[in-house]
Amino acid sequence: MEKFIEFDPTVNLEDLKQALAHHNPGIMILRLSKLTGAVKIKADDTLTKKDLKEAFQPFKIKKIYDDFPVNRYQ
């Protein structure tokens, strides 16, 4: 499954990759959206939102989207 994650505050991809290096339950970072600041990831379908939040510790997840969060900016 692909999801978009918005972090509070915005973080860069290198910091996220380092966080995943410590505890990665099968998440791949695909890209950072310049429009929304959300990070697109690909993860196993069995992962819950709680699993995603734990994988990206110590960064705080503001919101997890199932689709591209374009409605916020229209």
Characterization of the model:
It contains 2 helices and 4 strands. It has 74 residues and is an alpha+beta fold. It has one domain (2-73): 2-Layer Sandwich (Alpha-Beta Plaits). It has a 4-stranded antiparallel beta sheet with strand order 2-3-1-4, with helices on one face. The longest helix has 10 residues, at 13-22. It is globular. The N and C termini lie far apart (25 Å). The mean pLDDT is 89.
Concise synopsis of the structure shown:
The chain has 74 residues and is of the alpha+beta class.
List descriptors.
single chain; 74 residues; alpha+beta; Alpha-Beta Plaits; 4-stranded antiparallel β-sheet; 4 strands; globular
End-to-end separation in angstroms reads 25 Å
Order of helices and strands: EHEEHE
Query: Count of DSSP E strands?
Result: 4
CATH class: Alpha Beta
Radius of gyration: 11 Å
Strand order of the largest sheet: 2-3-1-4
Estimate the helix proportion, in percent. 10-25%
CATH architecture type: 2-Layer Sandwich
Largest sheet: 4 strands, antiparallel
User: Given the structure, what is the number of helices?
Assistant: 2
SSE blueprint and pairings:
Blueprint: E1 2-7, H1 13-22, E2 27-32, E3 39-43, H2 49-55, E4 61-65
Antiparallel strand pairs: 1-3, 1-4, 2-3
